[in-house]
Automatic annotation (TrEMBL):
This is Transcriptional repressor. Gene3D superfamilies: 3.30.1490.190, Winged helix-like DNA-binding domain superfamily/Winged helix DNA-binding domain. Its cofactor is Mn(2+); Fe(2+); Zn(2+). The lineage of its organism: Bacteria, Bacillati, Bacillota, Clostridia, Lachnospirales. Binds 1 Mn(2+) or Fe(2+) ion per subunit. One of its GO terms (biological process) is negative regulation of DNA-templated transcription.
Length: 131
């Protein structure tokens, strides 16, 4: 297996993502790291994010809003997405193995895991609506 060459830009992208909990898009990460790397291109950010996804170092989330979001937390966990403001939050709840068992009844394949997104209105948006 070929050794991956070290890249300061890739490490900065990874560090930026690890410091965030908002599940940013590539555009948001690009805006954040341009301070340190003013000449970096959006294409470089996309390529490095996709490489990190392929290496299993980060996750790519498809939440239905048309944009890819990224998560440094690769452990199995659920997400909540607000339909009002678009924020994405980690849900600190146990992964349900019962869901895998239920789904297993409907396939002759082998269910190994699942990804679940919950959609609704976040607490901040609910507060704004009631004000």
């Amino acid at each position: 297996m070929k050794q991956l060459k070290y890249s300061r830009q890739r490490e900065c992208i990874k560090s930026c993502l690890a410091a965030r909990r908002d599940h940013p898009t590539a555009d948001a990460i690009y805006a954040s790291i341009r301070e340190e790397f003013p000449n970096i291109s959006l294409g470089t950010v996309y390529r490095n994010l996709n490489l990190l996804v392929d290496l299993g170092e980060i996750r790519k989330l498809h939440c239905g809003d048309g944009a890819d979001h990224f998560d440094a937390d690769t452990s199995p966990h659920y997400h909540f997405m607000c339909r009002e403001c678009g924020c994405i939050e980690d849900l600190p709840m146990e992964i349900s193995q019962e869901t895998n068992q239920l789904a297993q009844k409907y396939t002759d394949g082998k269910i190994e895991s699942h990804i679940t997104y919950f959609y609704g209105i976040c607490g901040n948006c609910l507060k704004k609506k009631s004000s």
